Amino acid sequence: MTNYKNHLLFGVVCWVAVCYVFNFLQHPLFAVSFAVVAVSSLFPDLDSQSSKINNFTELSLAGIILFVAGVLYFTKNNLLLPLLFACGALIFAMQLLRHRGVMHSPILGIFIASAIYFLFSHFLAAAFLVGFFSHLLADQHF
Ligand SMILES: [Zn+2]
């Protein structure tokens, strides 16, 4: 049974090994890449109702909803209304995910890494891929 600590540790170890092999240790985004690896090594378990990342994400989204609802109440500013609906929709969608379904799909990992590649950097995209695939490997998904 692989828990979140093992996923985190395995993801970081894999990332350090990749950085060592490809001589990325001096990269300017090296420290930032560990945050990406930490998130991506836990990311697939967003579909598990008992996972730490699922509980943290739902709690964060609920906090955002409460904050935005408070701002809407006091300011009557409707610009934040889409954020309120988006957070609610994400919480609802997370309830519909089947464990080890689409969130554990290699295609989803490649898709998100591609988005990171085009929006941010190839280095952080590589960090996401290593974290994501280390999770699938630890889950014996291959
Ligand atoms: Zn998993």
Pick out its properties:
single chain, 142 residues, binds zinc ion
Give a written overview of the molecule.
With 142 residues, the protein is mainly alpha-helical. It folds into two domains: 1-48 and 102-142, no CATH class; 49-98. The chain has six helices and no strands. It has helices at residues 4-21, 30-42, 52-75, 81-96, 106-119, 122-138. Helix 1 packs across helix 6 (122-138). The protein is globular, with a radius of gyration of 17 Å. The two termini are 16 Å apart. 22% of the residues are buried. The model has no long low-confidence stretch (mean pLDDT 92). Residues 44-45, 104, 135, 139 line the site of zinc ion.
List the helices and strands and how they pair.
Elements: H1 4-21, H2 30-42, H3 52-75, H4 81-96, H5 106-119, H6 122-138
Helix pairs in contact: 1-2, 1-6, 2-6, 3-4, 5-6
Bound molecules: zinc ion (ZN).
The site of zinc ion has 5 residues, from loops.
What distance lies between the first and last C-alpha atoms, to the nearest angstrom? Answer: 16 Å
DSSP helical segment count: 6
Give the number of domains.
2
Q: Calculate Rg over CA atoms.
A: 17 Å
Structure summary, number of beta strands:
0
Present as ligands are: zinc ion
Shape: globular
- Major sheet description: none
- Mean pLDDT across every amino acid position: 92
